[in-house]
């Protein structure tokens, strides 16, 4: 296992602090994420202006999450969604062997890593890259590309939610080091399982191993201790926002969140791509088909450590990847 950062880089606390200074630093009580609506000029240029970029960075610092609407054309999502819904049903048919996270209603599922389904506006969105670069530094490392599919309820099975958890279930810095770029392939609503988010839980004493139950390697690792959830809900409770199709959601990896039940008849797919700070020494690499190599190498906004494989191998292997805690997001010495 990779050698991780020393835990002394951050403070651990079994309880939430109640000092006046803490309340001042975490003053916002809004449970709704900030949504930025780019202007037509910003959409044409693929760049946010200074004011919207500042708002995005401020929201990530304060809330740990920001939504940017209307940045991906729907037709760029629809074809990928059709394929991934078909793939989700194949994975679901595996029964107990399906790659689920916490419960069978939430599948981890990779998109097909081949040119046919790769749209730059989805996987290399310039506004998403601008925001992650603005917070993490020049040329973040894109080393994780997967997704979460909330499945419709199966006959005889009660829909389940995930426990509230953090993806940072390892020793990590107390400052921003990784951002998740989520792309909903359809509109997200509470009915189809939009993610529950706990804004502001990505920093300070709320972020660290001391607030978690379970160890890395367990299916339920990163789960937040129940007494702390009850305390936090009195300060700033969770929300399950509606996210318009065509939006991107950028989330600090440390933020508390939970996958929710899908009570509709439609599979709900959300892509998840992680951008790590350029100084963060995570050794993971993407596995991509060789027909994407020229596309990836022609862009200059991200570092993309990748293993290039033949198209046939990519097609045969992408639904048989690791899932959940088989990925180690920690950094090496």
UniProtKB/TrEMBL annotation:
Pfam families, per database record:
PhyH
The protein's matches in InterPro entries, at most eight in alphabetical order, are given as: Fungal_Metabolite_Diox, Phytyl_CoA_dOase-like
Which domain of life does this protein belong to?
Eukaryota
Q: What is the protein name for this chain? A: Phytanoyl-CoA dioxygenase
Native species: Salinomyces thailandicus
Q: What is the lineage of its organism?
A: Eukaryota, Fungi, Dikarya, Ascomycota, Pezizomycotina
């Amino acid at each position: 296992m990779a050698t991780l950062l020393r835990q002394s880089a951050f403070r651990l606390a079994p309880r939430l602090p109640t000092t006046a200074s803490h309340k001042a630093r975490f003053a916002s009580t809004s449970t709704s994420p900030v949504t930025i609506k780019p202007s037509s000029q910003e959409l044409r240029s693929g760049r946010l202006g200074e004011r919207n970029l500042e708002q995005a960075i401020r929201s990530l610092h304060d809330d740990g999450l920001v939504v940017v609407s209307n940045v991906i054309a729907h037709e760029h999502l629809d074809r990928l969604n059709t394929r991934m819904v078909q793939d989700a049903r194949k994975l679901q048919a595996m029964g107990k062997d399906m790659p689920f996270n916490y419960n069978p209603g939430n599948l981890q599922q990779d998109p097909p890593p081949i040119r046919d389904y790769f749209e730059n506006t989805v996987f290399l969105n310039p506004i998403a890259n601008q925001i992650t670069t603005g917070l993490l530094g020049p040329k973040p490392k894109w080393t994780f590309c997967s997704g979460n599919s909330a499945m419709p309820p199966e006959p005889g099975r009660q829909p389940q939610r995930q426990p509230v958890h953090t993806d940072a279930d390892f020793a990590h810095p107390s400052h921003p080091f990784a951002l998740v770029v989520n792309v909903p392939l359809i509109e997200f609503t509470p009915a189809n399982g939009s993610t529950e988010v706990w804004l502001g839980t990505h920093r300070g004493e709320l972020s660290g191993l001391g607030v978690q139950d379970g160890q890395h390697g367990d299916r339920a690792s990163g789960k937040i201790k129940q007494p702390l959830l009850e305390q936090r809900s009195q300060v700033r409770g969770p929300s399950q926002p509606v996210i318009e199709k065509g939006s991107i959601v950028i989330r600090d990896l440390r933020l508390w969140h939970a996958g929710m039940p899908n009570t509709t008849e439609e599979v709900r797919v959300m892509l998840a791509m992680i951008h790590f700070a350029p100084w963060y020494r995570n050794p993971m690499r993407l596995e991509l088909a060789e027909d994407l190599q020229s596309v990836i190498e022609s862009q200059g906004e991200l570092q993309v450590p990748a293993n290039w494989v033949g198209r046939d191998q990519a097609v045969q292997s992408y639904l048989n990847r690791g899932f959940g805690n088989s990925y180690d997001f920690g950094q090496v010495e």
